[in-house]
Amino acid sequence: MVLDEAGLDLLFRTARTPERWRDEPVTDDVLHRLYDLVRLGPTSGNCSPARFVFLRTADNRERLRATLSEGNVDKVLSAPVTVIVAHDPLFFDRFATLNPEPGLRAWFAADVGLAEETAFRNGTLQGGYLIMAARALGLDVLPISGFDAYAVEDSFLAGQGWRVNFLVSLGYADGQPERPRAPRLSFDDACLML
């Protein structure tokens, strides 16, 4: 099976980062369907380190205000949902459920550097799955890296011990962006065939 042209347009070619959001909520059902897709994406050893915090209320999104770069404030505060894409540094404690291979938990528990690298890399991968799954479900997506990670962790993740990677605002775009899509590198500029 291959996605048809409409599917490729939805995920890549016509998908754009929204500048404004419609006043339309993202339902609990959609968020559950979103995660049900995200969790199926592959991670190394099925480690599944990503953790997602869905900020749905205006009060919780307002708590983000002080952590955001100035250019992101209005876009984030007006979005129906903003997701904190994080990872659990102790992801290996879930291996009894996710991958009970003997000795695997101890291997990661004994090497903090390896565990952190694995959690960050695979959590980032799962954040990418979140973006693509959201588009597949008809949501518009605004990935955000302009924020104070330590402040987000202090405000939202302190009790969990999770580490923030990036933010993603979700909703339904109010119109098309006014600016044309920014250029992308060509195959020859970005790829080697060896």
Q: Estimate the mean pLDDT confidence.
A: 96
Give the count of helical stretches: 9
Shape: globular
| Contiguous runs where pLDDT drops below 50 for at least 5 residues | none
Q: Write down the secondary-structure element order.
A: HHEHHEHHHEHEH
Topology:
Layout: H1 5-13, H2 28-38, E1 50-55, H3 58-64, H4 73-77, E2 81-87, H5 95-98, H6 104-109, H7 112-136, E3 140-144, H8 149-157, E4 163-171, H9 187-190
Antiparallel strand pairs: 1-2, 2-4, 3-4
Helix pairs in contact: 2-7
Provide a descriptive summary of the structure in words.
This protein is an alpha+beta fold and 194 residues long. The chain contains nine helices and four strands. The protein has helices at residues 5-13, 28-38, 58-64, 73-77, 95-98, 104-109, 112-136, 149-157, 187-190, and strands at 50-55, 81-87, 140-144, 163-171. The protein has a four-stranded antiparallel β-sheet with strand order 1-2-4-3. Helix 2 crosses helix 7. The longest helix has 25 residues, at 112-136. The radius of gyration is 18 Å and the shape is globular. The protein starts with a helix and ends with a helix.
